[in-house]
Amino acid sequence: MRRSKLLYVPFWATYVFLYLPIVVLVVMSFNSGESAYSFEGASLRWYGELAGDERIRDGLVNTLIVAAGSTVIATVLGTMLAVGLARHARSKLLDAIALMPAVLPDLVIGIGLLVLYGALQFTLGLYSVVLAHGMFATAFVAAVVRTRLTGADTSLEEASRDLGAGPVTTFLRITLPQLAPGIIAGALLAFTLSLDEFVIAFFTIGNDDPTLPIVIYSMLRFGVTPEINALAAILLLVSFTAVIAGQRLTKIGERGPRAQD
Amino acid sequence: MKSEVKARPVSPARGRRLGALVFLSPGLAYLVVLMLVPLALLLSDTVFQRGRFGGIVYEFTTENFERLLDPLYLNVVVNSLKLAALTTLIALLLGYPTAYLIAQLPRKWKTVALVAIVLPFWTNFIIRVYAWIMLLSGPGLVNSGLKALGLGPIEVLYTEGAIVTGLLYSYLPLMVLPLYAAIDRLDPQLREASANLGASAFTTFRKVTFPLTLPAVMTGSLFVFVPSFGNFVIPELLGGSKSIMVGNLIRDQFLKARDWPFGATLALALVVALVLLLLAQSWMARRA
Amino acid sequence: MSRTRFTRRLPATMAVVGLALAVAACGGGSSEETTTVAADQLKPNADLSKQSLQVTVWEGYLPEELPKRVKEKLKVENMNIAYHDTNETAMAKLTASGDSGVDVAFVSGQYAQALNEQGLLEPIHPELIPNLANLYPEATQLSYDKGNKYSVPYTWGTTGICYRSDLVKTPPTSWNDLLKPPAWADKKVTMMTTERWLALPALKALGYSVNTDKDEEIEKVREALMAQKPHLLTYDDTTFGDRLVSGEALMVEAWDGWCPTTNEKQNIKFVVPKEGSDLWVDTMVIMKSSKNKEAAHALINYILDPEIHSWAAENINYKVPNKAAMDRVKIAPGSLLGITPAELLNGESIIDLGQASTKYSRLSADVKAK
User: Fold this and answer.
1) Which chain C residues are closer than 8 Å to A114 by Cβ?
2) Which of A95, A194, B182, C216 sits CB 3.0–4.6 Å from B282 for a disulfide?
3) What topology is assigned to C159-276+356-369 in CATH?
4) Do A118 and C101 touch (CB under 8 A)?
5) Is residue A188 within 8 Å of residue B102, measured between CB atoms?
6) What three-state secondary structure class fits B48?
7) Where is the ABC transmembrane type-1 domain (chain A) (predicted)?
8) pLDDT tens by residue, A72-86
9) Do C364 and B249 touch (CB under 8 A)?
10) What is the ipTM metric for this complex?
11) Which of the given ranges, A74-78, A256-260, C240-244, has the highest pLDDT on average?
């Protein structure tokens, strides 16, 4: 396959662009001063503070619960929506509805949900954030999976149906494996978007213990300290380790031919 | 490859209806309850008046729609369009080659490259923005780099350049991931056939690869354009509030002015514009 | 959804009450109204062990161990604190649904006024808060809520110019030093972004009231702010202190409590410009939807205890309107805690202007749009 060397310029530019601030952020985690954006000297002070900070720790746990819960909902419902829209119902209106949460301003979603939950006399809590995040993430998953479905080769699915399989069996045995890369990309997106979402979470969490972004926003009035940088540095380290370890592990079980390519 | 077999145990029409019911109803029900109903509740406010101290007076008025025509707001819309479009264009120019090369990577590196795209976003937004403030500020890294190259210092922070940088940084993954999902699906035989027929790499890209990934280009562009258009934090933190966007206007109506009817009207205008975009996107996707 | 209907016009006088008058009138006046509202349902001897408290407040604004101490001391069943980042988001949360579950909220004075106008606040029952007697007399006559009918002040202060005394050529004395920065401060000044405080320096420099609703005065303010914009570093009302520390900015518009004057090495000073300024008050209010009103009153009473209330002055450097509490605080020379109530009352307190407040939203959008 011929590939122009020129393509590597934007490729590496993307990664440099994405990681340049991350380097700064990690460096700042060793700041001895109080400010998250002016460096005064090197120290491990904020790692120590982090170890004893319950609010940050609880916030992180709640954030992970919300992100995991909403990613599961969004991945399942989003994938089903994408398949249904691409294979079973052709409607521009339904297409638009499925994409809409991804394009509504977060503030409109947040306040709208607050009004709805209020009208329903719903007691708010972590679960109402899971439902809210799951809602907009569904749209993202559906759209990403759709990009893999449109124009895809449907002969295998047709063959499956011809052989007597129902839509669900066909979906589980044929469509799903073909869609896997799209589903993974969609789930990654859903998880990532939920982790850092503030506005919708703020309005739908009620008086439950806050997620991490809410904790950090509420700190703004008295200054965000490099403690958050220390937390980020640790999270990055853990994630990188997990990804590299995962990659080492999958390498072993990966001799067979690819499903598609 | 299309099957011509006629005898099917499940009739296609019935299979399709059943499939539609099974696959669509849970997701659509979810979206209707949690998105359309709240949206309808908010949008019903557009025809009412703001109470003197916030809240809503239920007296009919068309004043909110008249206020949409205020040149001040039109200016903000035009400016937002410009910044969001520029962001989307750069995201596409960076994101397409990136997604393309990720899709060509050996499988074991693919996931790593993909996760590496989203990993920066697992850190908090505020500190990512602070990192950019440090990079872009007067004595910051960007200017130090320029100085090393013999170029004069430039003023970046608190300009529209900083806003575009921040928006691009926030939404680039939303461009890369759909593109990756689409490019990865392409049959390499198509490109080989094209090459065998004597087409140059560029011609193959232009005539084969790009048209097949056009729906994903549209999806990715929409994912970058729309939140850029509605963002209000980046124009404040990186743009220094010196050049606000539609998102700031809507936020200010709901939170600062406590003028929900007009906030809802602005949001409605935004939603209508976006639905038109979505319909265009859906039309392009169906055609491809 | 509880959205209340408001067609009643407030007497225009309310909008422009001078604070000097307020001080003069201090003392009598309000008692007959407070007794009429106090007569209803609340029981002074209610069993607090069946009540739980939900508070919403800014992060770091109350002592961390307060919930524990409140549980021990007041014997309430539970106390939980939620945090909000700004007055604005707190308002949206408190007004969007009928019952936010919040019993006691901390918001600034003009926001308390707006909540009350929307019928969302429980009148304060003074007989349940004997510690109200600890407040400075001035603190009971604030123009957004004369007689503390629905709010109790927690902290107060003013707005001025916070600056680097080692880097400025001449210390600022006037709002015009900020509005028309000298060449050495070009692009090294910041202004607040919240609309009423965005307008404040120009309003005062031009000799207008901070509560003006006259179009021609607001237009003059717009012109001044547009002229200033090219010489501004940024609009900012959260991190201006850091900007002075790093030297990125030399002069910033700041609330006194946010101006980091305590570290001598940083050479940061605060001045109230000669044209005058505002008086801001952060207050405690009880929501009408609260089901724990006796406990809410008991909490406010407990916070007004000099030992608890002095915490804010000692730990977050905010002045508290509580004489008994301030008497306990050692005030270092040069500390902004030394600003006296009488000096504070030279400032004009910002009140919610009702319909006219949208003029300030438009002004803010107009100045900030490209």
Assistant:
1) 92-93, 96-97
2) A95
3) D-Maltodextrin-Binding Protein; domain 2 (3.40.190)
4) no
5) no
6) coil
7) 60-246
8) 999 999 999 998 888
9) no
10) 0.87
11) A74-78
